Amino acid sequence: MSLISVGTMAFDAIETPFGKVDQIVGGSGTYVAYAAANFITPIQQISIIGYDFPQEELDELKKRGVELDGVETVADKKSFFWSGKYHLDMNNRDTLVTDLNVLADFNPIVPDSYQGAEFLMLGNLSPHIQLSVINQLKVRPKLIAMDSMNFWMDIALDDLKEVLTKIDVLMINDAEARQLSGEFSLAKAARKILSMGPKFLVIKKGEHGALLFHEDHVFFAPALPLEEVFDPTGAGDTFAGGFIGYLAKTKDISFTNMKTAIIMGSALASFCVEKFGPNRLKEITKKELDARLSEFVQLVSFDIDLA
Amino acid sequence: MSLISVGTMAFDAIETPFGKVDQIVGGSGTYVAYAAANFITPIQQISIIGYDFPQEELDELKKRGVELDGVETVADKKSFFWSGKYHLDMNNRDTLVTDLNVLADFNPIVPDSYQGAEFLMLGNLSPHIQLSVINQLKVRPKLIAMDSMNFWMDIALDDLKEVLTKIDVLMINDAEARQLSGEFSLAKAARKILSMGPKFLVIKKGEHGALLFHEDHVFFAPALPLEEVFDPTGAGDTFAGGFIGYLAKTKDISFTNMKTAIIMGSALASFCVEKFGPNRLKEITKKELDARLSEFVQLVSFDIDLA
Q1: 26-55 in B: which are within 8 Å (CB) of A?
Q2: pTM over 0.95
Q3: Integer Cα distance of B221 and B214 in angstroms
Q4: Domains of chain A
Q5: Is-cis flag, bond preceding A42, omega within 30?
Q6: Where would you tag: which of A159, A182, B51, B300 has the fewest CB atoms within 10 A of its CB?
Q7: Reported ipTM
C-alpha cells in the first residue's frame, strides 16, 4: 500500500498578526507528506526543488518514510517562493510575492518505482500537470484526490474540468466551490460539482470546519475553536495529507471511513496552525493526536431522543 | 413551568436576493414565541405594539399558547418598523430604516400573572429595559438567557455589563463576542465573557453554526447546509426561542441538555429561513421537526476508535 503525493516543496515568507518569518520551508507537497506520514509509509513524493532547498529537510522527510525519487533538483535555479501576509481574521491573506523559479519548468516524471501506488494526492498545481501525472500511471489508483484553487478556474477551466472527470475526491474551499459551480448555496454547488466527475467533494471552510458531500449524503466536520492560530499556512494541505494518509492506511474508501479521515485531517490541521511552517507537524506524538481526536468527539457529541 | 419572553413585535420590510416584502410581521419576541411554542406553553409575552399590529397575528399567537397580558398596545402610534436588505452571502445585511415608533416609549411592566416564571428570555433590547424586567421579578427565574448586539456595546456598555452579572446564558454572534471581549480568538473571547457573569455563552455564526461555551467545555452545533436560504430574518431569535423553549420543557439546565437545546434551536432556525418572516414557523409538524433533527444527527456523526 503506497501513496503518491504530488505538490510543491518551497520556501515561504509569512507575516501574521503574531509574528513574521522571512524564509521557512513550505509547499503543499511538504505539508501533505508530513501529515500523511502520521498514518502511512512510504509516501512517494513528486516535486521539484532548487539548489537552495535544505538537505536537512530532505533528510527529515526521508527519516519519516518519504521517498524522494520523484523529486527533481534543479542545480542552477532557486526553489519556488511564496510570500503572504494574513489579515487579523486569519481567514484572509494577501499574496505579496510569487516567484515560480523551478516551478516554471515543472514537468513531473513518475518514477518506475512509484508505479502501482493505490492512492494519489494531487496538490494544488496546474490541471495540466495533474493530468500528466494521472496519465503516466499504468494502473489507475484506487483513489485519486486533488486540490485546486480559484487561479486555475480563472485561467485553465477547461483543463480543470477534464481532470475532474478522472478523479474521485475534489478538495477546495467554499469560495472556490461557489466559483466552480456558479451557485451560492453550498448544497447546490456540491450537487453541480459532483455531476462534473468527482464522487466526493470536500469543501474546506477554515476556522468554520469542512463539509464532505457524496451522492445525497453530507457530513460536517467542525474545526476546534483554538486559543491561538499562529500561522494558518499549510493547514489545508495538512488536512489533505491527514485525510488521504488515513484512507491509505485503512484501505477503506467508503463514505463512513471518509468521515473519519476528515476528522483525522482536521486534527492534524489544528496542530499545523500552532507554529510557523510545518514545524509543529514534526513533533506530534500519538498521545497528543489521540487527545485532540477526543476533543473533536466531545465537540460535536449530543443526545437527541428521536423516539 | 412557564417562560417569559421579552422582545419586540414589529413590522419588517425585507429584501433578499430571492424576493422582497414591503411589510411582514417580525420582531424578536414574535420569533421567540413561535419557536418556543413548539415545546412549551404558556409563553408569557412582554412587548409593545402600535394600533397597526394585526389582530389575526395576536389571535394566532394566543391559539399557540402565548399569553399577551404583558403586551402593551399604544392606540395612537405605529408598531416598531425595521427595513433591511441582505447581501448575496445572506450573512450580511444593510439596515435601511429603523422607525422606533412605540418602542421609543417601551417601559415594560411585568404582569402579576407572570410572577414565578422559571425561565426568562430577554430579547435584544436596551440593557436598561432588560435590567428593569429582571428587577421586577419577585423570584429569580431558574434560568435567564439574553440576546444583545453591537449597538448596545457601542452606546450602553456599562449597562450591558451590569445585566451580564445577572443572567445565565448570553447569546450573541461571533463579531459581537469579539467586540465585547476585545479578543479575536473565539476561545479566548469566550473565557473573558464567561468571567463577566454568564455561566454559558452561545456564539451564533449563522450558516457556520453555533458554539456553546461553559467552564472549560465547548460544544459545536453545525448549521445544515441548506439548498435555499430564502430570508434569514429572525433566524437568531428562532434559534433562541427553540433553545429556551426546549430547556423550559425539560426543566434541565445542565450543559448536556443545553447541547440538545442548541440542536433544537438550530433545527427550528433551519425552517425559519425557508420563507419570509415567521410564516414557515407556523407550519412545522412534529414529523418535519423529527426529520430535521435526524439530519443533524447524521450531519455530524462519525466513528473514531480511540483505543
Answers
A1: none
A2: no
A3: 14
A4: 3-300 (3.40.1190.20)
A5: yes
A6: A182
A7: 0.90
